Amino acid sequence: KDPKAIIDSGKALPIGYWKGSALSMILDMLATLLSAGNSTYKIGLEKDETALSQVFLCIDPSTFKDTEIQEKLLNEIIGFAHDSSPISKGGRTYYPGERTLKQRSKSIKEGMQVNTVIWKKILELIA
């Protein structure tokens, strides 16, 4: 709720600067209109973030035939994300979902990691 504090902290700015802000606003409008739900503005007025409006986009990449240029462009964007300055020294920046993909791969090999306290509560619900 305080953009100056975010900028002063050195944490990442919205992707694309003004373009990222515009995309965020358009998605907020789209989600609000399609769901007849709460906008970011209305959600921000509440104590807790509930009753969120969401958008799910589906794009078929096979409609774009030049996979070589796709790969090149995506690698440029990923490289830019990886080359960004991390918040803490010795840290690393990731693109959205990168750690999820690594965790999924690890879970497939080693099994899914589950918080034992939460797992016990789940077992109690189905008992």
Explain the overall architecture.
- With 127 residues, the protein is mainly alpha-helical.
- It has a domain at 1-57.
- 57% of the residues lie in helices and 0% in strands.
- The protein is built from six helices and no strands.
- It has helices at 3-9, 18-35, 40-45, 67-83, 98-110, 116-126.
- The mean pLDDT is 84.
Distance between the termini: 43 Å
What is the general shape?
extended
Order of helices and strands: HHHHHH
Structural class: mainly alpha
Radius of gyration: 20 Å
Enumerate how many helices there are, as a single number: 6
Main sheet summary = none
**Low-confidence parts, pLDDT < 50 over ≥5 residues?**
none
Into which percentage range does the β-strand content fall?
under 5%
Q: Which whole number gives the mean pLDDT?
A: 84
Helix residue percentage: 55-70%
Number of DSSP strand runs? 0
Sum up the structure in keywords.
127 residues, 6 helices, mainly alpha, single chain
